[in-house]
Structure formats: C-alpha cells, structure tokens
Amino acid sequence: MHTTKTDLRLLLECLKYQMQWPGSQKQALLTIISICKKNDQFVEFFKEIGGITFIYNLSKSTSFSQVKETAIFTLASFAELHGSCKQALCREEIFLDFAGHLEENISLTEKRVVVYLLSVLVANNSRHNFPGANDSFEQLQLWTSVSSALCSSVNNPQNEENQNTCMQVFPLIKTWLQDVALSRAALAQPICSFIGMTVANNLEQQVQLLSSGGLPVMISLLTEASDEEIRKAAMFVLHTCKRI
C-alpha cells in the first residue's frame, strides 16, 4: 500500500514536470488510472494529494490534444470509480466549462471523451441534483447549457458513438421529466430536444427509448403540458421514433 501511494506521488510529479512531453504525460495518466482501478483507497489518496484538481487544470491548460483527451478520460474514470471524486467534479463551473467546450471547434475524439465525462457525472448523480421547481435561474441555465452542448455532440454532425453514450443517462432523465418537467418548461424543451437528437436516425437507440418507457413519458408531456414549447419538443421525439 505504501509503495503504491509513493508511485502515485511520483506520477503526479511526473505530470507536473513533463509539461513539454505529451507522450510522457499521457502514459502517466493511463498508469494512474490503472493503479486506481485496483483499490478505492488509491483514488481517495490521489484526490487528497491534489491529483484530481491538477488533472482538471491540466485538461484546460495543455495545448496537446492527446494530453487533454487523456486527462478528461481520467476524470471520467475517477468519477466512475469513487463517489467522492464524482461529487468533487459535480460543480457548476466544471459543467459549464465542458458544456462550452463541446460547442468549440474540437476533434471528434475530444468531443467523445467530454460526452463520456458529462454522461458519467449525470448518470451517477442523484436525481435531486437536477433542477427543481424552486431552484435558481443560474442552475436552470447550467442544465440548459449542458443539454444544448450534448445536442451538438450527437447531431453536429450525427455521431452514433456519442448517441450511444448519451442514451445511457436516459433512465435518470426520464425520472426527472416525470417529476419536474411540467413546471420547468425552459429546461424540459432542451432536454426533449437532446433525447430526440440522441435517437435520430439511430434505430438501436430508438428501440432503447421504447423499451425503457420513454415514449409514454413523451405522450404524457404532449397531452398534459400547458407550455407550447414542451409539446413541440415532445412531438419532435415522437416524430423521430415514428418508424419503430
């Protein structure tokens, strides 16, 4: 255990002092993931010594695409491995940062790892961390921005791999739509658009939406919502799935 923690300290130092050597940084990140997968205690230790914060800052500051992509992948891996790391990453500025990142002119590989990170953070999060009926306008704007960014990642151009990744969060989104959507029209519309674009021209994901009970939710929004934009968004999803 002590030897492994020493290794993690040395790998973090390697990341800090190899800023001009992207190959070395990428390998160090992959080695850190490999070590941390063996024991949750290693993930917690790496967080305590500032490793997660450094990797997040590295993902923003590096000019090397391979380092940026691997750093984002590492953050997503940590979020999957350990609850406290997930909570550390579930901050408004991080969501806004990566949501805005998706709207930039970046490679498909980079988009893919950003979508992976966002989907992990959302899929592993509590439903209570979604905006409620009385939450702030700023939090509403945050989730609207994330939804819009994810829409771009699956449909600009169509990217089946990102569609398949994003569809994994639907069970949580479905619960949120059932509980909150009717009272939060400004957010229900982009969420429904996101679902529609995620299943567009993708029969496999349309079937997944059907099997997970998504179409009854859309029908409910179409018939019960008083807001015209919600009804239009629900109709968009139903129209997208009309062939199944």
From TrEMBL:
One example of a Gene Ontology biological process annotation: homologous chromosome pairing at meiosis
UniProt-listed InterPro entries: ARM-like (IPR011989), ARM-type_fold (IPR016024), TERB1 (IPR042359)
Entries under Gene3D superfamilies matching the protein: Leucine-rich Repeat Variant
UniProt name for this protein: Uncharacterized protein
